[in-house]
Every structure is written in C-alpha cells, then in structure tokens.
Design goal:
mainly alpha; 7 helices; 84% helix
Length: 180
Amino acid sequence: MTSQQVGLLFLQLVVSISVLAFVGVMWLQGQESKLKYRFFCVRDRLLYLAATEVLPQNSMVFKVFYKAMNTYITELDAFTIVSFMQASIAVKSSLEKENQERLVDGLRRSDPQVQAVVNEFIHIVMHALRYNSPMLNLILAFARHCTRLYSFLRKLRKFDAPVYDTYRYYETIHGRMGLA
C-alpha cells in the first residue's frame, strides 16, 4: 500500500467514526426525548383523572405523584441510580411513617385507573434509571446471565442417581431398626 492509500483509509476511518458518533448522540437524544414525552403522557393522564374528578386534586396521591412527575421531567438528564437513592432517602425522611401509610392506603383505595397511571409512572422511572445508568445495565445483564447459568445447572442435576437412592434406602432401614 502506498502512503496515499494509507492516508485515505485513515481519513475514511475518521469520517466513519465521526458519523457513527453523531448518529449515536442523535439516538441518545431521541431516547431522552422519548422518555420525557412518556413522562408528559403519564402526567397528562393523571391531570385528566383529576379534571374528571376520578382523583381529587387535594388528595395526597395526586399531590405526591404530580410533584414527583414534574421533578422527574425537569431532572431527567441528571437522573441516575445514585440520585434516585438520594431522592428516595430524602422522600422517606420527609414523609413520616404515618404519611407513608396514608399514601399507600390512599393508593390502594384509589380507582384502578389511578393505580394504572401510578404503575406506568413507576415503569417509566425504572426505564429512565436503566437509560441513565450504564453500570445498572451491566449489573442486570450479569444477573440475567447468572440466572440462566443457574437454571442450566439445575437441569443438569436432575439425573437419576441410583447409588444415592440405594444409600438413602439402606440408611432408612438402619434408622428404623435402630442400627444407625
């Protein structure tokens, strides 16, 4: 290869990497926008339930989840597993035990449509956590592979072991006879 061909290959490599990086960044921005719009959709459904008086606007369920949805929408780009844990600890300490029980009880007694909206909100939060936390994705992938390996090993262990069965039979006989 001549030096001109090497230079052209290097230029092609640089351009290809640049284009792939640009496409990757655009894809990530699209994923972030998709998550934001999913949050907007769930928040709008919650507002619709409040407007149709399925969920009272002065209820604790509405206040807590509406505030949480707005917070997640504004802080989506900085939302990681660490910030999720810090926010959970802060919310847990700010809501006393009595208020937590009232919130859970209010959610249990609420309309199934409200429960569906809250459930969808929690799923979107988990999706956002996976989007913003590459380490969490690695941990989940490792756990998934360990689970597959465990189930494979359990299938292998299900072979007949006549020696062990014979041993258990004689051990049982000796135990009944008082020889053990």
